[in-house]
Amino acid sequence: MAARPPSRPSWPTQSCRSDRVQTALAAVNRRIKQNKRMGTPPSETPLDQRVLREQIASFYQIYNTIFRSRMAFVLVIGAIMYAEIPTRAVIVYTVAHFLLSLTILLIPRWTSQTPVCESPRWLRTITVCVLLAGVADGIAPWLFVQPGHVPLTAVLMVVLMANCARAAQSLRPFKVALVGHVVAVMLSLIAALIHEGGTYYYFLAAFATVHLAMLVRAGMQENNELTAALTLRFENEQLATRLHEQVLETERISREKTRFLTTASHDLRQPLHAISLFGAALESQLRGTREGINAQRLMKAVNALSHSLETMLDISRIDAGVVKPALQSVPIDPLLISLNHVFGPLAEQKSLQLRMRASGLHVRTDPQLLSRMLANLIDNALKYTTEGGVVVAARVRGKRVWIDVRDTGTGIAQAQHERIFDEFYQIGNPGRDRSLGLGIGLSIVKRLSKILDHPVEMRSRPGRGTSFRISLPHDPAPLAGRADAHADAQDALSAEAMPERVLLLDDEADIREAMAELLGTWGIQLTAVGNEAEAVHAMEEARTSGKPFDLLVCDYRLSEATDGAAVGLRLRADFDADLPFLLISGETAPDRLRRVHELGIPLIAKPVEASALRHVISVVSRARPLR
């Protein structure tokens, strides 16, 4: 029975988490902009002042409604009471109460531009206005509570109690104002009822007392809940703002790190490229001699360092989007055989078994990128396996083909499943043992799986081993002869035809000398120049002598930030539009790699091995028949 695949790959959790973080940050940005428009104080303002300011703002949003309704209410109640008690005192009270409400309505008020430090002053203003309104309401019972006139008293009592309930709702942000207004009105009503005496009035006084207690208690609870909610809101906003600032700082540090690594990578590649060229020339000259052994050891170390830099450059190429898959029908067995040739000696050296199981299957993929994915998985498996071995097998599951890379190594703990695809992360290698690589292999696998749309799943048990599975589309009926055509093309490319005359443009004197030494051993006549003016002069002499160049090789980054790609294109446009053109560069910046890819110029990365350079020169120069 086939093993059931895991429910998800190891890395989408980070991607989903990243999406949620980006969404949250976008919401924070919108909130910050909204706060700026509304005049909301910055997060550095003390929390209690921000809460008070928000409470004042909420009160002034209904300020007009409160006091305009009071003015209308005073006129209506005054008219009703005057109809029952037609005295001058009622008229004077109604007019005075109306003018008080009008005055409070017209006095200067708080606005969103008011500094937060002035909030306590505005709190005092609100409290004074509300207390004055409460005192004015508290005079009413002494005017309108009449002996023996219970219905009128009941109407007044209902009106005052409803007014206090509405005021408590509006004033819940302010404890002092709420209690002062409600107590001023209700205590005056209770006192007036007790003063009149009698059963009905005592009952109404008791009822009013209970109502007062309930209003004060409910108001205090609502005030506490509102204050707690505002405090929590502003604390969350402060946390979100700090998170936003930290993310911006992290992004800035990341950009600086990328800029530093790009510059450092280029500066390291230049001398390493010269060492590689000089070493290859020296190795060729000393081959078969006693000193040639040391030259071989030197080149082995140089090639190991070059491989490390090339691995890091792969990350830059993929992130730049210059790696485009060329999907085709690919037989799996020849691919596994070639990988066995590469990793078989390493497995034998560690006394491990490396088994490649033939399947006869074809898949729809890019053969080079798939080979790189499998190579990284096999290399990683062999590094972390001390006993047993590694098995690579393919099988059909519906319309998909599963390629499994299983090892009997140390395994991976559950807590580390999500981190193993991160750059430079290695399990059990705190000392950064170089024999275990850089920790980039699985990161490249992750990136290539997304480019090819070949999901990768991982299962592991500590002490029992690890299994990686690549899921690819099955190609059940590959076109006849496609494999033969591919083999014929490879045979045609293998016949190297080297150019006779090459023009090299590089601002580093050591590079020019090393290239001259190396290409001289291949029978190539090299003309090396250091800038565009010298290159123009060399091209003019070649055209005058009737011996044009067969290949133009330029460094991508020349002195004074000159663009080697632009220089090479200008030279071709001025002298020979069909001249094969090759760029050599130590650049790792994704935007620059993307630009070269868009221009369609062949690019080889520094430092370059002699065999790879020879092959690329042969392929590029074959773009035009040699003279």
From TrEMBL:
Annotated ranges, domain Response regulatory: 501-621
Domain named Histidine kinase: residues: 263-476
Keyword Transmembrane: yes
Swiss-Prot/TrEMBL catalytic activity: ATP + protein L-histidine = ADP + protein N-phospho-L-histidine
Record EC number: 2.7.13.3
SMART domains: HATPase_c, HisKA, REC
Family annotation (PROSITE patterns): HIS_KIN (PS50109), RESPONSE_REGULATORY (PS50110)
Location of 4-aspartylphosphate modifications: D555
Keywords, ordered alphabetically: Kinase, Membrane, Phosphoprotein, Transferase, Transmembrane, Transmembrane helix
Ranges annotated as spanning the membrane: 62-83, 89-110, 122-144, 150-169, 176-194
InterPro entries xrefs: CheY-like_superfamily, HATPase_C_sf, HATPase_dom, His_kinase_dom, HisK_dim/P_dom, HisK_dim/P_sf, Sig_transdc_His_kin-like_C, Sig_transdc_resp-reg_receiver
Protein name from the UniProt record: histidine kinase
